[in-house]
Amino acid sequence: MSDFALNPAVDPGALGARLAETGRLHLPRFLADQSAEEVGEILRSERGWYRSVHLKSGSFSAPLDGEEPIEAKHREWLDAAVLDGAAGQMQYIYDSRRLSSEKRFGLARGDRLEAFESFLNGEAVLGFMRRLTGDDRITSCEAQATRFLPGHALTAHSDNDGKGARLYAFVLNFTRPWRPDWGGLLLFHGSDGHVEQGFTPGFNSLNVFRVPMAHAVSQVASFAQAPRLAISGWFQQEV
């Protein structure tokens, strides 16, 4: 049994109408305080990051030593990696640890981040999400740890996986404090080209939204005083 816990004061039934109205929701204090503090500290101490890059010019994932790729060829690739502002397709540069994929492909490390991924796939969280969304199709959570450093960004996309497995996307944030002018905002795009809404990555806040939905993470500013740390992914159905 996991020793992580949700905030017992959060009532999914009372919040469901707000999510249904717009298809997205900002939910502060999602985890119990002790659980949020532990996950935040784990992410701040994590050293097993990969630099994930997907650009018009190509894609790669490189293991890091601190904030720099371990291998010289990856450092060369990263030096040449530039977001193309004219490109129409999704692009990104950020650090990740794909927790669910590690377990699925036999690369589990047996650490507390993986224990938290198991908690997200337990009945406490999946049941909460079914009550919040009113959607009984939710059976699993695909999760990754993410770190956005200055210059990192994720351009507009919808999270449509082409299979219909992804039902609701989420970002659970663990940086304290965070100022909006540091960037790293979760932005929702309207069909008119304007930003309909934006969420600042407040500590222990869950941002959840229906898939597909156009959104992006704005570039983290050069003067940001901390990395943007989060657990993100999708609540899914079997397909």
Please explain how this structure is put together:
It is a single chain. The protein has 239 residues and is of the alpha+beta class. It is built from 6 helices and 13 strands. The chain is globular, with a radius of gyration of 17 Å.
Short account of what is shown:
With 239 residues, this protein is α+β, with helices and mostly antiparallel strands. It has helices spanning 12-22, 33-45, 72-80, 99-104, 112-120, 123-133, and strands at 24-27, 50-55, 58-65, 68-69, 92-97, 140-148, 153-157, 166-173, 186-189, 195-199, 206-210, 215-217, 228-236. The chain is globular, with a radius of gyration of 17 Å.
Task: Name a few traits of the molecule.
239 residues; 25% helix; alpha+beta; 6 helices
Topology, pairings included?
Blueprint (H helix, E strand, L loop, with lengths): L11 H11 L1 E4 L5 H13 L4 E6 L2 E8 L2 E2 L2 H9 L11 E6 L1 H6 L7 H9 L2 H11 L6 E9 L4 E5 L8 E8 L12 E4 L5 E5 L6 E5 L4 E3 L10 E9 L3
Antiparallel strand pairs: 1-11, 2-3, 2-5, 3-4, 5-6, 5-7, 6-13, 7-12, 8-11, 8-13, 9-10, 9-12
Helix pairs in contact: 1-6
